[in-house]
Recover the amino acids of this structure.
């Protein structure tokens, strides 16, 4: 079960918009960390994903385990939301 | 294989949901032609990840690529277009019906529009794959924010390379633009580029190949290039590399289908935008002879939709699911 979801995004990222739209359709709430507005959190996104890219979606489960999905990757995101 | 009667049927299936397919879908769905679009990445295609579109008619001040893509999608959906996130893997000609193998299973369509567009090409040098998304990038609007006050190398000399270099100046402290021959971007973009060159934000290196991307401690630190005139090696200190060296057509799924491709794997068509497979049409960047412009892709999409309507009218009644 999903406890919370955080998405690291930027203002201009089309794939971020797609992830948010997918989560909206699936009725998931999420927190957005906009790296254009909060550049100090870039290192956090990099540490979580190992990649200098967005979107990075962090799905935290009720047992506090985490799934990190890099990019708009429904093959990874969909199962992480179960 | 499932019985034909059990396979979902549509009047039109569009492969891709970029400007060509979305424009086509606006026309078909507005005329109540049942239309399904398959998109494997992001609706709007490369337009959606383009920073700024300055030459799409009707927008005097230009607009963000993402805003244009979103508006096209919303307009198509307003008339009833359905966009399915998935991939078409094969197309088979079964006469009146075209059977599409997709990631959601087989589907049947009376007519198909191929509008899969292109993706950015890779340069194929050592280090490119190794540092992908960790210093080597193909999407400035996605990944540029990680290079605030950093040095960047941009590879390419066409419209995309120049436009995305200008976009990246909002983050980077300096950009070295490596151009293999000469800058081939439009005059307007070259004029814009000159302003950034004059300000010292971008340095253009003409006649310079990109040979290798080097890293240390899991980070990109250098690009090795060669000046083609003298053969001299040049080292560019950098924190990241953005590559815009042209487009690769998304036509792999058509190999073996019988649909004729040209020598660079773009889809051939007749004057009705119909391919060599009757009932299968093509529009946008994937079409042989396309001008690779968002405006022309949209126009071709509209034309293809009208030709598809003519094709369907010459056939039997529309789909009754």
């Amino acid at each position: 079960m999903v406890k919370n979801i955080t998405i690291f995004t930027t203002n201009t990222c089309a794939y971020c918009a797609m992830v948010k739209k997918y989560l909206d359709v699936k009725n998931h709430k999420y927190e957005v960390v906009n790296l254009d507005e909060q550049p100090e959190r870039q290192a956090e996104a990099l540490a979580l994903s190992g990649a200098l890219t967005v979107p990075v979606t962090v799905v935290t489960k009720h047992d506090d385990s985490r799934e990190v999905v890099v990019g708009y990757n429904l093959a990874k995101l969909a199962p992480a939301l179960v | 294989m499932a019985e034909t009667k059990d396979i979902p049927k549509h009047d039109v299936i569009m492969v891709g949901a970029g400007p060509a397919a979305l424009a086509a879908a606006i026309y078909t769905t507005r005329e109540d032609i049942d239309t399904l679009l398959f998109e494997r990445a992001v609706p709007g295609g490369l337009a959606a990840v383009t920073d700024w579109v300055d030459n799409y008619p009707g927008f005097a001040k230009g607009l963000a690529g993402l805003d244009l893509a979103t508006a096209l999608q919303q307009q198509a959906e307003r008339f009833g277009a359905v966009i399915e996130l998935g991939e078409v893997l094969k197309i088979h000609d079964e006469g009146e019906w075209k059977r599409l193998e997709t990631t959601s299973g087989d589907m049947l369509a009376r007519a198909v529009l191929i509008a899969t567009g292109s993706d950015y090409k890779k340069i194929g040098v050592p280090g490119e794959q190794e540092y992908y998304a960790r210093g080597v990038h193909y999407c400035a609007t996605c990944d540029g924010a990680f290079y605030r006050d950093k040095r960047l190398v941009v590879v390419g000399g066409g419209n995309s390379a120049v436009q995305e270099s200008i976009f990246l100046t909002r983050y980077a402290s300096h950009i070295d633009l490596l151009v293999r021959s000469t800058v081939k971007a439009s005059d307007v973009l070259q004029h814009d580029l000159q302003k950034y060159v004059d300000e010292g934000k971008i340095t253009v290196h003409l006649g310079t190949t990109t040979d290798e991307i080097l890293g240390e401690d899991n980070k990109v630190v250098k690009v090795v290039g060669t000046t083609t005139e003298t053969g001299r090696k040049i080292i560019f200190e950098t924190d990241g590399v953005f590559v815009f060296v042209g487009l690769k057509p998304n036509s792999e799924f058509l190999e073996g289908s019988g649909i004729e491709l040209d020598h660079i794997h773009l889809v051939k068509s007749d004057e009705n935008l119909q391919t060599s497979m009757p009932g299968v049409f093509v529009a946008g960047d994937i079409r042989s002879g396309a001008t690779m412009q968002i405006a022309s892709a949209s126009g071709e999409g509209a034309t293809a939709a009208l030709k598809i309507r003519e094709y369907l009218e010459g056939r039997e009644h529309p789909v009754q699911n």
